[in-house]
Fold this sequence. Notes:
Distance between the termini: 49 Å
Strand content: under 5%
Helix content: over 70%
Order of helices and strands: HHHHHHHHHHHHH
Amino acid sequence: MAETNVADRPVRVAPPRAPRRRWRPKSPATYLMRLVVVTYLVLLVAWPVVLVGTHTFDDGLTSVREILEDPDVTTALRLTALVAVCSVVINTVFGVGMSLLLVRYQFPGKRILSALIDLPLSVSPIVVGVALVLVYGGRDGWFGPALESAGFQVIFATPGLVMATAFVALPLVIREVVPVLEEIGTEQEQAARSLGASSAQTFWRITLPAIKWAVVYGVVLSMARSLGEFGAVKVVSGNVLGETRTATLVVEEKYLNFDQQGAYAVAFLLAMVSVACIVIVAIIRPKEEKR
């Protein structure tokens, strides 16, 4: 039987170990800054939201069950979901298109267009609602009488709610997509075109996969903002019970009528949907980036 030389055996090389991070004591200023930031977030964000949840369940599930059994509230919740989904779809399509226009093309007035995109963040939603009434109002609006004579009502109807909600949430998708487009550059897109890919093929196979998480995060932020819109919706809706009353208007109506448990329950449902969307994206996003 032939003996195997020890020198001929394969030698297993251990993978290099990652250098251990040595704990270094932080300065007192660092701990003080962390304490200030955490205290600020707790007092301004976490504590108020937690109080809404605790007040909602003061009597168990009774207030939530009564809210879900109220036909006017369920109609308002369905209308809110419909308006939010429509506005998110509109903002996603136009947001990605505007982002490509701002990053990939040079044209006169580009800075003005970029500044106009930020306008919904700086203008009060009440002003947005009044502006939409002036343009699309059925009596004195610029286009409202012509549209209503053609059988299409905008103000005090669902289209007005969608327009107002899409207006206030417009910048959220764009401001997520634009930095990613600037970061990825145009090298891969130019290589695809040089190999014969059309513009549509380049977008679907190169551009969209690169910006997909920016789009997803913008959609989630837009959805959360759309669900909670109040000021612009209040002006253009007319607050008609069972027709144009949204969930945020239900919260106001119940709170003013001293039905605080009902107001807390509806507010809790809206907050939970928004928080759930953000948490799901925060959990999924790092896993996708590791692939």
